[in-house]
Amino acid sequence: MMRRALLTVFLWALGSVVGLAQITIFDPALVWQQLETPHFVIVFHQGLENIAHETATIAEESYQIIQKEFGKAPAEKTYIVIADVIDSIVGSATPIPQNTIYIGPAQMRLADWANVRLDSWLRTLVYHELLHIMDLDIASGPNALLRTIFGRIAIPNINKPIPFIEGLAVYEKYKHLGESRLNDANTLMMIRQMVLDNDIPRFDEIARYYHRQRWPHIGLLVYNFGSWLLRYIEETYGPESMKKFNDVNSASVMNTLSLGFFGDNFDTILKKALKEPTDEVYAGFRRWLRQKFSAEIEAITREGLTASVRLTTLGWLTRQPSWSPNTTEIVYQHYGPGRTSIRIISAGGEHDREIIFGNGELPSFSPDGRSVLYTKLDLDGFYYAFGDIYLYDLAQKRERRLTHGARAYFATFAPDGQTIYFAHHIGRDASTAISAFDLKTQKITPVKEFSDNSVTVHSIAVSPDGKTLALSLWKRGGYQDIYLLPAEGGEPVPITQDKDEDLDPSFSPDGQYLLFSSDRGNYRVANLYAYKFSDGSFYRVTNVLTGAFDPAVSPDGKQIAFMGYGSDGYDIHLMPFDPQSWKPVTITKEILPEWTGFQRTNFPIKPYDFVPSLLPKLWLPFSDGKTVGIVTFGQDVLGKHLYQIVTGWDVEQSRPFYFLDYQIAQILPVLALSLSDSRDGSTQKVSAVMPLALSVQQQQVLRVSYSRSQHPAKEPDHPAPWTEDAYAAEYSYQSVRGADLWRDTLSVSVQGELISPSDARPYRRLTVTLREIFRLPLAETHTLSVKFIGGWSDAERAEDGFSIGGSTGKFAVRGFSEKIQQGKQALISTLEYRFPLATLERGLGYWPIFFDDLRGGVFLDLGLAGETLDVGVLKVGFGVELSLSMTTGYFLNWAVRVGVAQGLGEPSPRFYLTIGS
Amino acid sequence: MRALALIVIALSILICGGFLPATAQSLNPVIEGNSVDGLLLGAEGSYRFFGWLKPSLGLAYGLQSQKIRYKAGISVWDVTLWALDWPRTAVLGRVGERGLKAALKLPILPIVSGFVGTLWPWTQDPNPPDVAYVMWESSHNIQMPLGIELGLSQRTLVGWWQLGVLPSEFRYTQTNLSVRYEALSMSFSYGTLENTSNFPDFIFTQGVKGDSELIRGDQFWSLQFKRAFDVMTISVPLLVPSLELLVQGGVFLHVSSAGKLELPSDEQQEHKRVWQNRLSWGVSVLLLLPREVGIKVRLDFVFIRDGKFQFLFSL
Fold first, then answer.
1. Predicted ipTM?
2. Which residues contact residue A757 at a Cβ distance below 8 angstroms, ignoring those fewer than 6 apart?
3. Nearest by CB: B277 against A792, A827, A870
């Protein structure tokens, strides 16, 4: 089993896929429609009609609850876009340029990230994201006026500590729906461990997104832990505390003017709302947690704790132990700082090593012990990212993809070594099914389809005789239970049937017992339980303080491997398989509410209309002393049309100016048009972008463009007005590979241009850039990078060629002044080593500024430019650099770099300062 | 006569190979070009008997020189003796060598070889000199973790010419350091020579990819950087169903520099070392069919130091 709070990390781990899914356009074969309710416009494609109707009902119900809570609601309708393009949990909300919620219907192993006690997985998503929309939409006091004038650029609530955004959504769900991540076994366990360790994080540690080095990861802190802070505030300072806080925060003009880059002092805001300084509020919160959870700890301990041996030591997200047939090794999945992999460790705890780099999921050994079976998400054509089944040959160290487009997310071998049972999505409405894949014939045979979306398959285990499947299924109403199903199909028979969360069934090798994890009991502690087939009795196998998940009995029947939890996160633990020591318990079945299928609403459905969402919603004024103007941008909610307009008045030249960019992403390639007219002339440009991505770990893009520009005369190079036609093409490539901490990130781009000025001979330019970053297997932050850039042109004028020097830009050679050499050709090479100096992780009081870490670097720059490339005049610079990573506002991560470089032959070193990511 | 005897022995053993307990064999085509023979076509092969005896024979015909080239050898344990008239020689500035050659190859220690014979004649030197040389060659490859391979090789040659008159010495040393990680490779070479006896054309000759102009000197250094990467694999439907074409991209840089002493002039009183350098860089596309088919097509787009560029195609 994986914990539900994994959502954020899961998306981080697959960030490239999600990012790519957002960049890549939707499949042109999708036909989009919209369903309009009083407060929402729900946009969806074919196959999602039922989901759209359910979303409409849930969204309106949620809207009423949240409006009552905040006393405010958005003036415009909120868009909800539902798209089935990725086998990953997708839920996001943005208030800019208009209130929009994006939902992916794929629910997969729902219990890994959500509190399954809620009746509908859609409610979990929609309520959470709608709360963000209705929270971030609030603009009070002077900000309400700014919103009226400048539109949706005035979003003051975007500047508040993340627990007051994400934690708020989790808390409000708990407050009004009774269940959320706040009170699930995972969060309770995490806080219990914090109290046990006397290590409750400081406020500045939980307030923003940053690259946190320690467990718990920042996602767990801002969502799960943060929700407890808000619960404490409302229970202590009154049930309207969050409303009061939002009223004050959303009235701060500084929060609006800083546009997410900075923000108001949080202490000032909270003090106004609660009449108490943040120091005291947070100190009280910590005391409250200690008191509350110490009592739980005492009560659990009183029953006697189960002893186990911690096998793995990497902590963080370590899961899904699976034994080798000879009981000597365990394969497992791990995600932690610098590592995303499938690993193997000996049963004695030695020789822990990575076998498969990347995002392989839920591994298990084949019955012959020669291979490891797992699922993995990868690109499926240009428009989709789906899960498939993979087999890794341990001897040949080779991965084999068994299925293509199967949408599989869990797979396990039958004892015959030929049949693989797997859980996968069917249809487009997130329905799931169990199928069998025959390794010899490569044929897929359906075993059981839950096509009415009433059931979600979480996990599968195959009995030792191969005749029975044990399943963990989630059913409508919020029931996650264990079932048995004949291997050839039929109706699942419940073993458990109640509101407790029962997951990850596993047979004992003799077939007498079925083990599973469950959070039943007074404190929602996840423990291992066993069901005895002979008499139908149940036993509690463990009594742990934190949690026990993912049981796997060793093939020799002597040990149980399971996922335990400690100060560093999750690890694999071992304990004896001793039924005599188990405590008999009684588990009774509840009657489940009947799922009668999707309820259709009467809201009308019509074809998707992109115009209303495309209209400009914000206007940002600007002036640089010479010009005054406004910026606006917008896009329709499907991202098919996107534009940016900058326009205004040139005060110096008494003339208007404009810059217009428009992009259309209906089909590939994505086309863009840019038009501008300013004091520097006018430009018309068309471009096309074609992603050639083949896999998550290797991405390629091809760009071509044509532009024509007209410029006024400018002495001495252009004594008369002149025009220029430019044709450009660029191919870029990026790949990521690795082994354990070692990472190799290669980026290559080749850009060619043909430029034809009206007052000079046409010329060509070619720029080749290669950059390779090796993360050394020492720690997560030691990197060695190599950069090579070559430039060639046949331009007549030197300034149309290339110049080297300076500390910034593509052809920088640190230690020298800019344009130290110039000519038709240029070559640059850089070798750079960066290393960690200190982990700071400290905020500056309650201001939205946070110092993440300090890194050092040493570098060597080589550069050469001229009509002829003569190595004899090679420019060599070397130096050292300090880099301070920080977060400002609560989202923006960036770094300040200060360096000193000495150029060989230069009289003195040069200092430089750069700001970047 | 000695050469003829060796050829006869080698041929006899090869012919009789079928009757003896041969444990390994190799037979490879010879297809190569040189400035004397033009295109050289033939084959070379070897047998191993009893685990310690390995005769070898190479025969090829030069289309331009219209000569038959041979290389007959016998290896007994770690010692090999050849009679040869074969292209390639360790002597700088020369194309091939004819004579007797012996080599001793012991584990760990450098390979020591010696040659006595005549270097091939060529247009600039129609009456080639008789030479003898001794050469030490060592090569070490170190496999590092993560598939990184470090290489170090060194060659030292001491030779003599004017053997019948007044044997005069010439020598050179050449060192190569390389780092390779999968398709990324960097190598640095350095060499220096002594030729106080003015052995003709005994000088380092260096060039870079795409530049026909060569540079010469008694010292040189050379730096090469290459990075290839897999772009995509394409199934070729018209060929065998499973045949897949791998398309690779690549970026390369090659710098060479050669230095020689310039004689004193009116302005300067002492010898001055003058360095010439050459540089080329560019991008490549490689089309690779599976190893069983063994076809590799390489397209290079090369820029050289003066800004000229050219397109190279190789199969």
1. 0.83
2. A722, A723, A724
3. A870
